[in-house]
Design brief:
84% helix
Length: 114
């Protein structure tokens, strides 16, 4: 894995957890708006919208660089629209990056011909 591919996965990983948190906070704000006089939905909606757009842009970049299959790309996109999905995506991206580093080192040392 080259440095650009690794950095695109890292960027996607970095934005996935904040995007998930903003989604959960937006859901809480929506409930509070309906049950109390507290209305933070416009602010939280803008923050979540921005993070979602950034997530999708980083997702497209990672998909382009890693050459994921349609199933893997769809999985990571679906994780962006599920309330706790960003946390699962972050964990899986971390594991995928670690596996790629191990495979890259093995190829460099000539241990594996992959």
């Amino acid at each position: 894995m080259d440095i650009k591919t690794a950095s695109s996965l890292h960027r996607l990983r970095l934005v996935s957890a904040p995007e998930a948190v903003s989604f959960l906070l937006l859901l809480v704000c929506s409930v509070l708006k309906r049950t109390t006089d507290f209305n933070a939905v416009p602010v939280m909606g803008a923050i979540h919208g921005f993070l979602f757009v950034v997530y999708v842009l980083f997702w497209l970049d990672a998909w382009n660089r890693t050459k994921w299959g349609l199933g893997t790309a769809a999985f990571y996109f679906a994780m962006s629209v599920l309330p706790f999905g960003g946390f699962f995506a972050e964990r899986r991206l971390k594991r995928e990056a670690a596996d790629a580093v191990i495979a890259s080192r093995a190829r460099a040392e000539g241990t594996v011909n992959a």
